[in-house]
Amino acid sequence: MLNVIVLVSGGGTNLQAIIDAVETEKISNTRISGVISNNKNAYALVRAKKHGIENRCISPKDFETRAQFNEKFLEAVDGMKPDLIVLAGFLVVIPPKMTERYKNRIINIHPSLIPSFCGTGYYGLKVHEAALLRGVKVVGATVHFVDEGTDTGPIILQKAVEVEPGDTPEILQRRVMEQAEWKILPKAIDLIANGKVKVEDGKTVIL
Ligand code: GAR
Q1: Residue 110 a catalytic site member
Q2: Number of independent structural domains in the chain
Q3: What pLDDT, in 10s, does the model give residues 29-53?
Q4: What lines the ligand 1 site, CB under 6 Å?
Q5: Ranges of residues in the chain whose predicted pLDDT is under 50
Q6: 113 C-alpha to center of ligand 1: Å?
């Protein structure tokens, strides 16, 4: 049984997609053992509570230095004994110690087709604003392993979504979530839980 923890910052619709997929057995061999948010007002925490999942908030704002936060954050994660850490809209930079300790055991959902519209400064609605500004016709989402860079780790799954006339960043964000994120994130977890994802030479092989 894969012990999964989910790290969140906001609404938690991706967390909800994971919870639903576990409950309906679209994700097998998996238990969500905890949710951590950096934001005490994140609706994602309410979603965790509703489903009886252990949850807590740990925020950089409550510490004098980033180093102190990183230490407590790592302690909180270690305490939940995860086999897999899922970043589902988590907007805090992962400390290098954590990417080292959990190499190829942290995954992230990013709302673009990496390597487009990713890296520092590209998160949430900003990604969709940039895509509309550039006038691309196809966008999408990516699930990837997290390494020490920003959105640079091995890609696991991607799904494309069409831009439509009249799209606003909000409309496009919702379509990318519905058509791509909520599908590929649970699917990636199921693949990992069933031993179907291997990393070779910085790329994944899906078995
Ligand atoms: C999602 O669109 C996710 O892809 C994005 O934040 C949103 C969180 O929504 N993540 C990033 O931009 C990470 N760089 P949610 O809280 O409703 O799941």
Answers
A1: yes
A2: 1
A3: 999 999 999 999 999 999 999 999 9
A4: 8, 10-14, 44, 88-89, 109-111, 123-124, 127, 177, 181
A5: none
A6: 14
User: Hey, whose CA ends up nearest to atom 6 of ligand 1?
Assistant: 89
> Which residue in this structure is represented by tokens 């070779």?
200
User: Can you name the residues that pair with 200 across neighbouring β-strands?
Assistant: 203
The pick from 8, 15, 106, 123 for probing ligand 1's pocket by mutation, whose C-beta has the most ligand atoms within 8 angstroms, reads: 123
Domain coverage including residue 143: 2-206
Residue identifier of the C-alpha nearest atom 10 of ligand 1: 89
Three-state DSSP class for 178? helix
- How far does residue 9's CA lie from ligand 1's centre (Å)? 8
N- to C-terminal Cα separation, the chain: 19
pLDDT score at 161:
99
- Read off the CATH number of the domain in which 60 is found: 3.40.50.170
* Adjacency order of strands within the sheet including 84-87: 55-57, 30-37, 2-8, 84-87, 106-110, 138-145, 155-162
Q: What does each C-alpha distance from 198 to 4, 89, 190, 203 come to in angstroms?
A: 18, 24, 13, 8
Among 59, 72, 53, smallest CA distance to 15 is for 53
